Amino acid sequence: MKTIAQPAAPVAGTPSEKTSVSAMIAKFRELGLLLFIILMSLAVQLRNPSFLTWENINDIATNTAILAILSVGMMLVIITRGIDLSIGATLALSGMVAALTVKQMPDMHPALVLAIGIGVGLLCGMVLGFLVAWVNILPIIATLGMMNVFRGLTFETSGGKWVSAHQMPASFKEIATGSLLGINNLIAIAIVIYIAAYYFVSYTRTGRRIYAIGSNPDSAVISGIRTGRVLWLVYTIMGGLSGLAGVLWVSKFASAQGDTASGYELSVIAACVLGGVSIAGGVGKISGIILGSILLGILNNAMPMINISPFWQMFIQGSIILIAVLINAMVKRGLDRNNLMRRKI
What we know:
Elements: H1 15-27, H2 29-47, H3 54-79, H4 87-104, H5 110-133, H6 139-158, H7 170-177, E1 179-180, E2 183-184, H8 185-203, H9 205-215, H10 217-222, H11 227-253, H12 264-274, H13 286-305, H14 310-342
Antiparallel strand pairs: 1-2
């Protein structure tokens, strides 16, 4: 009788084993991130029993809502191998326009104020999308330049002055402080946006095209995808979300300033990276950026509660982000190697 030779088991350290480990990490990345969040929360609770109280959890969710909203747009941008460094300036400009509007017309309906802020953001995003998609300026250059333009427009619009709480009507401030069915408006808006974003990237043709462009731009063009339109749409969506966030920000903090949200784009990018969005493009999940935003929100809330020095807070946040980047790079390298080995020659 002839015996059929069985395939040899992968030896530790061989490419087969490495790729299988990478595949496992990719599959359970969100689960591992969730476990890390739970363990970290329990550890902080042991140091400070007031951490897991309902009031503090609600504060974390409320403070993280704007970051989570912006992370949706940034995920779409990064998936297309782009970046948007202007979202903080767009947020400030939209918030300032909204604040000046309600200062002059205090009886304006809050929904109309939101529409004005979103409109300003959409206009900013359209300009950026045009520069990136059709003028072919590198995203980092286009957004860096427009960041200064939008920030300058914010100071010019306000005349270098602030709009403070006493100049804003109560109806405007209630946009962020009010509630819908017992849920804070900020959280409710974030939930609606995440549901819409999940449907968009999972069940629409345009959502699939965004991933196709990020995975392989040349193949996307060859397959007939109009990359210019998709890129323009992505940056327009990012601008609209930044405009919405601007109104919510100013309503929440009851203050509009020229330097509002300066540097906030770095926190948004960090939330995406922590959530598994690949800077190389083509990879990113809604569930991941939710967890990434929550993790950053918990870190910002927990570290002061356990008396960690502000300097160590920056070190810890930077280290966690760096570890996330390394894990993402390892997973991508392993999956690429695995796909290459499966090809038939």
